[in-house]
Amino acid sequence: MKCTLATAFNALFASGGPGINGSYRDIQVIRNSKVVATIDVYQYLQSGNKKNDVPLRDGDIIRINPYSLRIELKGEVKKPGLYDVLTNESFAQVLTYAGGFTDNAYTSKINVYKNTSTERKVTTINEQQFQTVIPDRGDVYIIGKILNRFSNRVSIEGAVYRPGDYELKERMTVSQLIKEADGLREDAFSNRATIHRLRKDLSPQIVSFDVDKLINGLIEDIVLNKEDRVEIYSKFDLKEGYIVKIDGEVSSPGSYLFEEGMNVQDLVLLSGGLKESSSLKRVEISRRVKDTATQLTEDTKTAIIFQQEIRADLKDSSGFNQFQLEPFDEVVIRIAPGYFVQKNVVIEGEIFFAGKYTLQAKNDRISDLIKRAGGLTSSAYLNGAVLVRTRNFSRTEETNYEQGLKNLVKQSLQAGTAPNLVQAEVLDITQKTSDFVGINLERILDNPKSELDLFLNDGDTLRIPKQLQTVRVSGEVLYPTLVRYDPDISFKSYVLGAGGFGDRSSRKKSYVVYPNGSVKGTKYFLFFKNYPALSPGAEIYVPIKRERERLRTGEVITLGATLVSMLAILFSALK
Questions:
Q1: What is the DSSP pairing of strand 34-39 with strand 511-513?
Q2: Based on the domain organization, do 269 and 322 belong to the same domain?
Q3: CATH number at residue 3
Q4: Which of 115, 309, 366, 388 could form a disulfide with 461 if both were Cys (CB 3.0 to 4.6 A apart)?
Q5: How far, in Å, CA of 45 to CA of 51, rounded?
Q6: Statement to judge: residues 200 and 256 lie in one domain
Q7: Which ranges of 118-262 does DSSP label H, i.e. alpha helix?
Q8: Does 179 reside within a domain?
Q9: Are residues 193 and 254 both part of a single domain?
Q10: Angstrom distance (rounded) from CA 177 to CA 223
Q11: How many alpha carbons fall within 13 Å on the CB side of residue 229?
């Protein structure tokens, strides 16, 4: 039976092709015990010739013979890999199967690794031998790259119109290269330029020359070598970048490039204009002192200060437009003395009109805020009132607190401490972004405007709770909880109500935080402890006892030896 759709190539494709040791050049179709076709896959892949792709019949056998000779091409060929080679095929023919050389291939010489009966050896073939060399079994051909350098390149950089690489012509000179680059720019520094050159041993060398004299023929022109790099400097490269600074009440304070003829109004415009809060009467300009001949004394000036006025419309005021800025001047626009941004405080809890209030004056006090909020409700607990004040952190303090949190987590992981045991300490660190100011609201309201009646700051929060009836016990106790307040029971009784002290508790460092934010610690003398008194809403905190680092055996021995030596010296001195 004949099927025109089933061909030898179709069958090879369906079966996955020859195996690792199978030949791509010697594939036979056997029909009735006779070879009716021999297929060379390379011919098909190279030219698309399918003349041996015979239609298959029922009972046909496709036999893939083992390869007889295989070599490997590595490196700069388009299709590196293993290749089957027929008898008498040359290296040039195999190279066509690999698609030829890449653009960067070094074709003059190719190294060949060969197998002998006992070991391997290396031979080299040149370009003229490609057609005649017949590969041997197991040959590996290594095609390298051309060298990454130029045989005739020179370059020019800097203050020329067309910097870049140029062809090195015979006996080419520096002046000719400058002409090739369309000459010097107007900003070229003509007193000195350099040639960066490589000696024969590839060590670097610098050759300096006067550009003006060389171009005008006053000195001998310099003949260039390959890979010479000529650098023409710009005048602007040889001096410090000129800037001016502006700070204070402008939209975009910062540094700006200095330009000749610049005045304060120009700099204000560059910085986005004045803010509403700016003071126009006292603009300060500081200028560097450049008198290097002056001897340094305690009275030596470190800056020259100018004070000027400026108009809100930035028009030139009388005489002010004549004041020109110089490089590195610093301008400060200060905030107007009578300008204030609203400062807000919050009052919460048992008050008739709780919420946010804006301070009316710098000397607004706690009593003023309570009066504006309509006074206290009948259920207000005055002894529990607390003032929360936002703390302004420096960058160093922020870093220290972040590091404190990281260290605490690290210690808890190393010690295998349960998360709830360190929760209070983490809270203690994170709450340091605010300060709880202890106040006595009852005495404040009895005697307003007194020293106890604190001035309010922006961001303050006054919290007035209702009557409290519990005491919180937390920290290193067995079961942190709330305990009903009873004036007749002791500190220890409250701790027992939370299950008692934990195994790692530091009893003598226990303390009480009162509702108004004040704190009292445990006092102790010898073996006696005097715990703080409790009030409704207070919190007992029992800290964790810090584990002492145990001395290693070597440290104990060293310490013991030191003590013995000291005792011996003391004993001999007493004798």
A1: unpaired
A2: yes
A3: 3.10.560.10
A4: 388
A5: 13
A6: no
A7: 174-180, 211-215
A8: yes
A9: no
A10: 10
A11: 11
Report pLDDT digits (tens) over 122-152.
999 999 999 999 999 999 999 999 998 899 9
Both 315 and 254 in a single domain? yes
Residue 431 CA to residue 425 CA, distance in Å, equals: 10
Contact (CB, 8 A) for 286 and 305:
yes
Residues 323 and 248 in one domain: yes
In a domain, 573, yes or no: no
The token pair at 501 is: 């002290």
Residue 331 · residue 247 · CB < 8 Å: yes
Query: Do 250 and 233 share a domain, yes or no?
Result: no
Domain match, 158 and 229 both: yes
Question: How do residues 54-82 score in pLDDT, each as one tens digit?
Answer: 888 888 898 999 999 999 999 999 999 99
Tokens of 230: 């000529």
Answer for the pair 500, 475: CB distance below 8 angstroms, yes or no: no
Of 215, 238, 261, the position where a domain reaches its end is 238
In a domain, 278, yes or no: yes
Q: Which residues of 403-426 are buried (b: 16+ CB within 10 A; e: fewer)?
A: ebeeebeeebeeeebeeeebebbe
What is the total count of domains within the chain? 3
Q: Which two tokens stand for residue 371?
A: 């009066």
Whether the per-residue pLDDT at 433 is higher than 70: the answer is no
Mean pLDDT of the chain: 84
How many angstroms from the chain centroid is the CA of residue 408? Answer: 25
Q: Is residue 475 part of a domain?
A: no
Q: Which residue intervals of 202-332 are DSSP H helices? A: 211-215, 264-270
Domain of 227?
153-238
229-283: per-residue pLDDT in tens?
Answer: 999 999 888 877 889 999 999 999 999 999 888 988 889 889 998 888 888 888 8
Look up the pTM and report it: 0.53
